[in-house]
Amino acid sequence: MYMFGILCGSPIFGAVSDKLGRKKSILISTIIFVLAGPLVALSPNFTFVMITRFLLAFGSPGIYGTSFVLAIEVLGPSWRGLAGNLFCLPFAVGYMVRFLLCCLYFSPALTCETFLCTTLPSWLSSVSVLLLLSPRLFFFFCLGESAPRWLLRIRDG
Description:
GO terms for molecular function: transmembrane transporter activity. It is found in: Membrane. Residues 1-157 form the Major facilitator superfamily (MFS) profile domain. This is Organic cation transporter protein. This protein is 85% helix and 0% strand. The chain has 157 residues and is mainly α. The longest helix is centred in the middle third of the chain and has 29 residues, at 77-105. The protein has one domain: MFS general substrate transporter like domains (Growth Hormone, Chain: A, Up-down Bundle). The N and C termini lie far apart (38 Å). It has helices at residues 2-20, 22-41, 46-73, 77-105, 112-132, 137-143, 148-156.
């Protein structure tokens, strides 16, 4: 369901970022992310988890994809490859650190059933902690300027 939300959100936020600008697209996505995120942690059942994960994923391309385009389009062609890799690096490192923390937290002797029974409360608390950090995205919205290429296109259009 999460990947279906990304599939639905990508073309919509691509169009929104072209029409309204990169910063407004990031702001709309951040609002969706901050509102839908706590609902995931507060979900009373599996159906609600799937719905809220879809909403969370729907806003995700507007933050990640649009930020990537915003970062890349201000650079010259010779720097775009390196900048694209460096932009993705914190995302990959975050996944690896999260995996290592899970390995340290859970004993390797756990069976699958025991793992599922013991991870639900910790999963909800870890999601809650991660989503409490989401409002910091509003701070980054205030730092950047609109993309120069988008401003030129709007001016010439």
